[in-house]
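Weekly sync, protein design subgroup
Attendees: M.S., D.O., the rotation student, P.L. (late)

Item 1: inverse folding check
M.S. brought a backbone from last month's batch and wanted to see whether the design step gives back something sensible before we order anything. D.O. pointed out we never logged the input encoding, so this time it goes straight into the notes. Structure tokens as presented (421 positions):
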């Protein structure tokens, strides 16, 4: 008699295996924590101890020197609260704190759909008031409305939608209602001289061109940002205006005190000035500017005097030179430990520094590691482009302004209209 082997156990085993693979991760909720989830899962239910539900639509603010309205939260749309003071509830928009005035809603324990994984993805510009929906369909309810004229951090895109987080909930923005943010313009200047005193266009811009550019920024209501604000923007902790720019200077040249400082002060601009601190001791106190003599650098007295406009940042202590044999930065001839020691000496003179401008734009992994260990948050390169969330905080692009660049190029860059291959 032929032996017949039943295939039933094999079939059952395969079914169990398939089911097991499909549910490798089980969502378990306990004490308000999500322990595990499917790798493909982006949103899950979670219980929050304090959830605000407004009875009427209310403005949402961010805090800076003053409260700035950045949107409106819809009525009957619950959002998780992360804190409060006597006047405002605090909730999160992306990674930043946002605020809603008390008195117009109820607070209770509640389950919400929440984002399981937030990613450093990108930002979008709201050119008009923009609806944020609770689901990826315009038939769903609106959670909030974004205010026009600002850049908002998003964590994901799915099909025709961008996703941000508000009060721990996912909010869906129709792609065609916003513009993808190319990033913040970061200008870099070195030497500023009147046209009749210029001997070269290399690293130099005329006073006349500089005045025209700063006037444009002022007339078009650009806000100048600090290094801290750039860092927060890159980390999704700050909503910044569409009309925002960083102005940076490298080297601490005395010409910028003589010619740039009065114009910047006139317009109330905040500017970064990267200091080579070994050169600040070449003179003492106030200096008479001599356009025809050797390059002059800020003194310690200048740094103290000019801090109402310039925020003084790092540019190394004595690594700002080139190897005569290779033509590359001497930084490549030093170990990470030597670079760190140099940066610590540099920062000792500019203790509020949070950024480093790499000398001649030359850097390597050792330099980046040293900058991190020195407590610096931003690294500025000489690569042309915008500062955005797609690149490392230690490889931030800038746009070098010299007399070789036209006013039209300047305008295209600050308006976000310039592209690179």
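Designed sequence read out in the meeting:
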């Amino acid at each position: 008699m032929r032996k017949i082997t039943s295939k039933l156990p094999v079939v059952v085993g395969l079914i169990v295996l398939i089911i097991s693979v499909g549910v490798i991760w089980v969502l378990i909720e306990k004490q308000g924590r999500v322990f595990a989830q499917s790798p493909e899962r982006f949103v899950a239910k979670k219980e929050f101890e304090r959830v605000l539900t407004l009875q009427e639509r209310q403005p949402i603010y961010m805090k800076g020197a003053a409260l700035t309205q950045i949107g409106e939260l819809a009525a009957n749309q619950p959002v998780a609260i992360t804190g409060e003071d006597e006047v405002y509830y605090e909730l999160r928009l992306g990674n930043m704190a946002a605020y809603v005035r008390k008195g117009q809603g109820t607070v209770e324990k509640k389950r919400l759909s929440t984002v399981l994984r937030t990613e450093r993805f990108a930002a979008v510009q709201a050119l008009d008031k923009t609806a944020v929906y609770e689901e990826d369909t315009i038939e769903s309810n609106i959670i909030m409305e974004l205010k026009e004229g600002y850049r908002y951090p998003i964590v994901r895109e799915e099909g025709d939608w961008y996703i941000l987080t508000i009060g721990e909930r996912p909010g869906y923005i129709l792609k065609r209602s916003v513009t993808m943010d190319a990033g913040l313009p970061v200008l870099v200047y070195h030497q500023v001289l009147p046209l009749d005193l210029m001997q070269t266009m290399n690293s130099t811009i005329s006073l006349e061109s500089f005045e025209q550019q700063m006037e444009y920024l002022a007339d078009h209501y650009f806000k100048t940002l600090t290094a801290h604000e750039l860092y927060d923007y890159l980390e999704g902790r700050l909503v910044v205006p569409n009309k925002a720019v960083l102005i940076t200077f490298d080297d601490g040249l005395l010409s910028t005190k003589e010619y740039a400082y009065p114009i910047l002060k006139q317009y109330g601009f905040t500017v970064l000035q990267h200091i080579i601190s070994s050169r600040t001791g070449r003179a003492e106190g106030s200096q008479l500017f001599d356009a025809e003599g050797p390059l002059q650098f800020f003194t310690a007295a200048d740094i103290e005097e000019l801090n109402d406009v310039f925020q003084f940042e790092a540019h190394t202590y004595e690594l700002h030179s080139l190897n005569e044999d290779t033509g590359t930065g001497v930084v490549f001839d030093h170990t990470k430990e030597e670079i760190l020691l140099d940066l610590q000496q540099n920062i000792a003179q500019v203790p509020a520094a949070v950024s480093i401008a790499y000398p001649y734009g030359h850097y390597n992994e050792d330099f980046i590691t040293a900058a991190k260990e020195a407590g610096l948050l931003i690294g500025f390169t000489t690569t042309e482009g915008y500062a955005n969330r797609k690149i490392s905080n230690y490889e931030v692009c800038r746009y070098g302004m010299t007399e070789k660049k036209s006013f039209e190029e300047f305008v295209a860059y600050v308006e976000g209209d310039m592209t690179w291959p």
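Discussion: Residues 336 and 365 are 9 Å apart (CA to CA). The domain at 186-414 is CATH 3.20.20.370 (TIM Barrel).
Action: P.L. to compare against the previous round before Friday.
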